[in-house]
Design a protein that fits this description.
Two copies of one chain form a homodimer.
Chain A lengths: L2 H11 L30 E2 L21 H12 L2 E3 L5 E3 L3 E3 L13 E2 L22 E8 L4 E8 L12 H20 L2 E10 L8 E12 L2 E9 L6 E11 L9
Antiparallel strand pairs in A: 1-5, 2-3, 4-6, 6-7, 7-9, 8-11, 9-10, 10-11
Chain lengths: ~260, ~260
């Protein structure tokens, strides 16, 4: 029985269970760590066997990625692991953030299982399966420098002005990248204000860099700056300031 | 030969033609009236026959629309036509705006045909074919009162926080609705600034109202306000101010 088959059997077994557990993703996705739904109830599900169900990690390269996208990916990926003087490999300053299309914890053995597993709901930026059609992106985090870099390739389903990316798709990526950054920095939060200046349009199919940096934290507030540029930084496409508010989800986690 | 067959024959006939024409949609879609691509060349295509090719109008009801969505649609639709004292029907204060998934002019006889017809590009808010999965919406315009109302039902592919609409999907709808409004008021333009305050999350699958109103015009600038509320207006979900800049596209139209 393959892992996938075991997972399917498990889901069938649990189909009648009302109180499947909700858990934040191990790697919180943009805003995905905000369980507003107060009715979500945590339940421990004891499994009679171990299983491993690996969801697709959308941050890994696929055949739709352009040479430019791959070049940038390889560059930042190479910074995720460095070699010491003695030839040993150790963690570098950057870290690639995995990205899934729903709030689902990779489970082994006794596990929390989200009732969202059975839901049709999908993360907006990862909801289209066809590779290259919509949002192709990968986010790298540099925790020490408090900044992220996202390599983003805009697909043909994101059109606004003819041949160019829709302003809403750019806003979506800015919210996603800054939200991921803020969540790694400050834990569960929600977007409170999104202020975007559009400077120059982005050609559909092109690759751009979305960079975010932490401005400051004040109590529950986290302020993040963001800019979208051409890969070499010579052309500024978009600038944004985003404010996030930390939220308390401990009651949802039974704490 | 059906209209669709005639259209297909025509496209095959024109397949080798490099300089197919570009034309703004008869009903400009959000930001879709901004042909940034300077290489687009206008060419008059003289057809040997008349044909009528009607693209799907996404603003019309489909089976995924909730009872709430239909109720609101019927209400605003009823305001698009009024009956005079003598029993005659005439245009009302509101107008339903058709909505397509690409920049394509409905052509009869000699016509402009966009090279975008052959493109895979699709308008971001209309790029998912499955009804009910993503953005279901219809925009009504009241030109005299300088305002629009959009009825929006958020599908399961727009998830951000578990069970709720992604901030980027809300930003997308705000850009789309205010962009449509501004374009009807001021002609071709581009979004320059989008400033959004998120007040309370929107449940996935629910229906909300997105209302925009013209604040002022100053030279090339058009200022639009927008709010997203529950259908009865009792709950404020989101507020926004959007600035648009008029652009000159006459050189693209050979004027």
């Amino acid at each position: 029985m393959s892992n996938a088959q075991m997972a399917r059997s498990l889901f069938r077994l649990l189909k009648g269970c009302k109180n499947l557990a909700s858990t934040p993703s191990e790697y919180p996705q943009p805003s995905a760590c905000l369980p507003f739904t107060s009715s979500i109830v945590r339940t421990m599900v004891g499994l009679p066997f171990s299983f491993s169900f690996k969801p697709r990690d959308f941050s890994l390269p696929n055949s739709s990625w352009s040479a430019e996208m791959m070049r940038l990916y390889d560059y930042y990926n190479s910074l995720c692991e460095v070699e010491t003087e003695t030839g040993e490999k150790q963690r570098g300053p950057w870290r690639r953030l995995p990205s899934y299309n729903r709030t689902l914890k990779y489970a082994t053995g006794g596990a929390y299982l989200s009732k969202l597993i059975q839901s049709k709901n999908r993360l907006f930026t990862r909801s289209i399966k066809t590779t290259g059609a919509a949002f192709e992106y990968v986010v790298f985090l540099n925790k020490e420098e408090q900044r992220t870099v996202c390599i983003f390739q805009a697909g043909y389903l994101l059109e606004g002005p003819p041949g160019h990316v829709h302003g809403g798709a750019i806003a979506t990526m800015i919210d996603a990248v800054t939200g991921t950054h803020a969540a790694y920095d400050s834990g569960p939060l929600m977007t409170a204000n999104l202020n975007i200046d559009y400077r120059s349009p982005i050609t559909l199919g092109s690759t751009v860099l979305i960079e975010s940096s932490l401005d400051k934290r004040e109590g529950r507030k986290t302020f993040i700056s963001c800019k979208v540029t051409s890969p070499d930084g010579s052309k500024l496409h978009t600038e944004a300031k985003v404010l996030f508010l930390s939220i308390n989800v401990s009651h949802l986690l039974g704490m």
